[in-house]
Design a protein that fits this description.
It contains 22 helices and eleven strands. By secondary structure, the chain is an alpha+beta fold. A hairpin with an 8-residue loop joins strand 8 and strand 9. The longest helix is centred in the middle third of the chain and has 20 residues. The protein binds adenosine-5'-triphosphate and magnesium ion.
Length: 427
């Protein structure tokens, strides 16, 4: 595998070399594993390096952190750690281990094991490849389950018959990898998956674990692919018994793909967009508020995420009609759109195709929401206005006047503020 490793970007090669040195110092063998090896062989860019270390991954992670000056986050209970590399990318480090599942869908009991044990506990053959990066044996591929063969044939295959029963989240993972790489879930694996579904196995999983996998699906480039596949497998009930994927939602999801790309190409520098939240809002859009609330509660979505779902639902249709008219006052557009998150604004553009409407939304993002007033609290204080709610009222009026083009310089703003300030003057 040396030729594959040589093709990696220099910063990742550097990390691998430092890991090799660290392994020698700490006295343990170090391997690249999991998604990183899979993507390396497929030629897919991946800056998240997965490593497995025999004996003590935590000790290794601290030593690697010291060597590279990177921040280390450890999870002692699982023997795992993350080393955050600058300026981007991370190394996930796991202590090689064996796992036993005491009950279906439970969390595994973990005990020490060697590399082979660690590869055999994994979800799919394509994720169970390792490359030795220790000085002795550097570059050797370790393939105990035929992962390379499946990778080249485009097959998602579990390692053993109980895989989906032990950990039903693998059902969602199987579909995600299948759709991401345009692979097929291999025939026997598909039968095992369907048999597991017939036992309603997903209902036994802790909802937060399902939520995490759902979020990963929504973070894929085109989530509809996995969602449609899950629908065909009759598997979407894990979201809610009421949940469905009607044609309107499918169309909306496709439109979001385009709008997210548009935002990335034109406005990425303005604000970080959580694209997966846009897909989540869209998925829940056709459900009633009560149903949405029980989904948000069950999955324990963050308050800010749930708020966006409800805020979008409550956006008045009358505003959509108004925003589809030409010649609107910018201050009115600002008043209507400013309370929304950018996720909601991008979703509005995906949902409503009216040109004028879409233009107003784009102008809000690129012009109106970028305008900053020049006067400050310092100026108001200088005029003799005591700090308090009056400040906000005055600033709002100045902003509206700026938005509507009535003020064009700091000087004009100051003149305007002088008039506004009169009723509040204390001296
Ligand atoms: P991605 O590109 O989406 O990050 P990944 O394969 O790197 O894919 P991770 O969730 O980062 O996925 O997990 C890293 C590795 O850990 C996987 O490749 C797999 O070998 C193993 N793994 C993750 N989740 C499970 C699971 N539920 N059961 C067994 N092994 C798992
Ligand atoms: Mg990964």
């Amino acid at each position: 595998m040396k030729e594959y490793l040589n093709r990696l970007p220099p910063d990742i090669r550097e990390i691998i070399l430092r890991a090799q040195e660290t392994g020698a110092e700490v006295g343990c063998r170090v391997f690249l594993v999991g998604g990183f090896v899979r993507d390396l062989i497929l030629g897919v860019k991946n800056f998240d390096v997965d490593m497995a270390v025999e004996s003590d991954g935590i000790k290794f992670a601290h030593a690697l952190g010291n060597k590279t000056g990177a921040q280390v986050i450890t999870h002692r209970r699982f023997g795992t750690a993350t080393v955050l590399m600058k300026p981007h990318g991370k190394v996930d480090i796991a202590t090689t281990r064996k796992e036993d599942y005491p009950h279906p869908a439970s969390l595994p009991e973990v005990r020490g094991g060697d590399l082979e044990d660690d590869l055999l506990r994994r979800d799919f053959t394509i994720n169970s490849l390792a490359i030795n990066i220790s000085a002795c044996g550097f570059g050797t591929l370790i393939d105990v389950c035929g992962g390379k063969r499946d990778l080249l044939a485009g097959k998602v295959r579990v390692l053993h018959e109980r895989s989906f029963i032990d950990d039903p989240t693998r059902i969602l993972r199987a579909v995600r990898f299948e759709q991401r790489y345009d692979f097929r879930i291999e025939t026997k694996t598909r039968s095992l998956l369907k048999a597991a579904l017939q036992q309603s196995i997903l209902q036994r999983v802790q909802p937060q674990r399902l939520r995490d996998e759902l979020i990963l699906i929504l973070k894929e480039r085109c989530p509809l692919r996995s969602l449609a596949r899950l629908r065909d497998l009759r598997c979407l009930g894990f979201i809610s018994p009421h949940f469905s994927l009607p044609q309107v939602t499918c169309r909306l999801l496709r439109a979001i793909d385009k709008e997210v790309a548009w935002f990335a190409a034109n406005h990425n520098h303005r604000r970080h967009l959580d694209a997966w939240v846009i897909y989540l809002i869209a998925l829940l859009e056709h459900l009633g508020e009560g149903q949405v609330k029980s989904i948000c509660d069950k999955f324990v979505f963050r308050k800010s995420e749930a708020q966006k779902v409800f805020s979008f639902k409550r956006f008045p249709p009358a505003y959509v009609a108004m925003l589809s008219k030409r010649a609107l006052k910018p201050s009115w557009i600002y008043k209507v759109l400013e309370p929304l998150s950018y996720e909601e604004i991008v979703l509005l553009r995906a949902k409503y195709r009216n040109k004028v409407f879409r233009q107003h939304l784009e102008e809000f993002i690129s012009i109106h929401n970028e305008i900053r007033i020049a006067v400050s609290g310092h100026d108001l204080h200088g005029l003799g206005v005591s700090p308090g709610p009056a400040y906000r009222r005055i600033f709002k009026k100045v902003l509206n006047a700026r938005l509507d083009g009535k003020l064009n310089s700091r000087h004009e703003e100051l003149m305007f503020v002088r008039k506004l300030a009169k009723p509040y003057l204390t001296r």
